[in-house]
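--- STAGE predict ---
source: upstream dedup step, 1 unique chain passed
mode: sequence only
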Amino acid sequence: HFKWAEFRETKAGVKLHLRLVFDENGTHYPDKEVITNAKAHDRNQLEVLVDDKEAMYVFDRGYVDYKRFDLFTDDGIFFVCRLKKNSVLHPVYSFSLPEGSDVLSDTMAFIGSSTNCTENVFRIIVIPDGKGGELRLITNRFDLTAEEISEIYRSRWAIELFFKWIKQHVKIKHFYGQSENAVKNQIYLALIAYCLNVLIQMESKSKNSILRISRILVANLWRNSQYWLRKIRSKKVP
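--- STAGE serialize ---
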């Protein structure tokens, strides 16, 4: 029914490439997106999503692109990304680790094969994945500790929680229309709804969660604004 969303012979699919912003107060919100069919490669969207030299970008291994990593470094854009398991490393230097560190190794290296190797050296940090395996992280930040880089990458889990929240509470799992515009509009409306809840939380200085605020609004939709503002600002949990 979604023939425009190319994926497999018996299944259609779309990808939402999303930039989720973290501010200094711990608030996070979506501010840029690209919607493609599921066949489109993730890394092709980096040109659109990465454009701010004041930010630190964190993304997963689907976005690995050595040429763009070189361009980011040349342009002064900082990032942390998970490396693929088959990535070839050419170590140049190994940094010492503080005693008791959870980090397994911290090295400086070129990345890639002889035909597709980075021009710049990058920092490769290996950390445990919590399941008995390892995660390899690549970054062009040499001014932070390995533990700080590790923590920055672990914070990326917030985007997984965001997608889970959107699917569960804004009802984006089922689409009401089958055309490309219908699907995209429903995704946009879900993102807008979330952003409006974040704005309400910020403007009202509410300590309630986004989910709690959303439920208060739904439960009191036809009451006057002062009533539900009092409910939102209340710290009571039903």
